[in-house]
Specification:
Distance between the termini: 45 Å
Number of helices: 8
Strand content: 15-25%
Largest sheet: 6 strands, mixed
Strand order of the largest sheet: 2-1-3-7-9-10
Number of strands: 10
Structural class: alpha/beta
Helix content: 25-40%
Shape: globular
Length: 296
């Protein structure tokens, strides 16, 4: 993957079918043109390249860039409506990739829309010093989108037997230090809550360890963030893309650790009961049939 260049991917005509059958859908979010937070132009690049890559693996991909809160939440609901309409309640794979700023408050993760202002640190009616936890969370809920809420929508609205994949490249550092956080807020992520007995199964990839921030850039990753760069690089290698998703993610993790010199250590949560592969090798013809065809 050359610096600043788009990687190459497996051709779309390969028509891969993973162990999880059915149609494949994806939504990729790239928020970079923040009004008050540090601008991150690589997020839009992350989203557009993920769209191209996933289309090469039979995903129907929607993309949202530089979205305000209402715009994104409407796009997310529309995406789920489209999936419901096209699958007719047949199991599918739904992948959500987010490249943006993120916040965590009281163990709940939030995606930051482009119009969100810096969080007000002034005291509230319940606190003599800084704003209390309840008021802090209310302010974030008003301005940002709950990631747990999005995940819960997917688990409740997708057909039973479906696979959910999340790639979360959003626990970012802020190089301009413009995120004005109080004692109850953090630009780091906690893990999502995976309920037992869901009709869907899930695989969640985090850019780095819970409680840590992810770098926006690393040497050699060009115009991409390190986590998305590693996903893209692994997708262009058939031997990795054809491996099961657990093996695929181990390759992503190893590359992120390498390019960030140990600064980031991606983690994952998994509730998989069936396998999934981005690319499945094309079956070879039976040797007897090939020989018979050659003698005809």
């Amino acid at each position: 993957l050359g610096k600043g260049k788009a990687p190459g991917y497996a051709p779309a005509h390969a028509q891969p079918q993973g162990d999880v059958k059915g149609l494949r859908f994806a939504l990729t979010l790239g928020n970079g043109n923040y009004k008050y937070y540090g601008k991150m132009p690589m997020c839009r690049k992350d989203a557009s390249e993920m769209k191209k890559a996933l289309q090469g693996f039979s995903f129907k991909v929607n993309m949202v860039e530089d979205a305000e809160k209402i715009q994104f939440e409407q796009a997310f609901d529309t995406w789920l409506d489209e999936i419901s309409s096209e699958t007719q309640q047949s199991p599918c794979t739904a992948l959500f990739h987010a490249s943006c700023h993120g916040l965590e408050v009281d163990d709940e993760n939030f995606l930051v829309p482009v119009e969100a202002s810096t969080i007000d640190m002034r005291k509230c009616a319940h606190s003599e010093e800084k704003k209390c936890k309840a008021c802090s969370k209310t302010e974030v809920q008003t301005q940002c989108t709950s990631l747990q809420g999005l995940f819960d929508k997917m688990t409740s609205r997708l057909p039973g037997g479906s696979l959910i994949i999340l790639f979360l490249d959003c626990c970012r550092d802020d190089p301009t230090k413009s995120i004005n956080l109080n004692a109850h807020l953090d630009s780091k992520f906690a893990k999502l809550k995976l309920a037992e007995g869901l009709a869907t199964t899930a695989f969640i990839g985090y850019a780095t360890e819970p409680g840590k921030t992810a770098s926006t850039r690393a040497p050699g990753t060009g115009h991409y963030s390190p986590f998305t760069y590693a996903i893209l690089d692994c997708l262009k290698q058939p031997a990795i893309a054809s491996a099961d998703i657990e093996s695929f993610y181990r390759s992503v993790k190893a590359l992120v650790i390498e390019v960030t010199k140990g600064g980031m250590n991606p983690e994952r949560d998994s509730q998989l009961t069936r396998g999934f592969r981005f690319l499945q090798a094309t079956p070879q013809p039976h040797s007897g049939a090939a020989a018979q065809g050659g003698s005809a």
